[in-house]
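#onboarding

Welcome to the new folks! Below is a worked example of what a typical request in this channel looks like: someone posts a single protein sequence, and someone else replies with the predicted structure as tokens. Don't worry about understanding the tokens yet, we'll cover that in week two.

Example request:
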Amino acid sequence: MRYEFQQLTSVLSKKAENAAEAERSIIRFWLMWQNKIESFKDVTVRKSKSFSVDDMSANLDNLLKSMGNVLSDTFNAQVQKRIARLALPDMPDDTKSVVDVEIDIGVKKTTVTPPDETDPPED
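Example response:
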């Protein structure tokens, strides 16, 4: 089964590489048609080349276990951001920023501030 996953990963990586090259060609032809070929140097097409289900599953499992073992809100926020990127590797940058902010806000909401020792105890 592991061998089949490795072969599948290899094939999918090659297909992702070919798809990215095809997209670059389409963009180049479109820019030529628009007489803006000088803009082609700024074009980047990114495709994920990581398709290993075994590796992703192990990474997610390790991240989730570490969240339970490390008592740090900052650490847990960083782990949550990493999980979001693993789960959706092709997420646009603006969406990543929104997710990061939402995670940070969620961490601030769950952080308990210890009571001030000068405050009188509540009855």
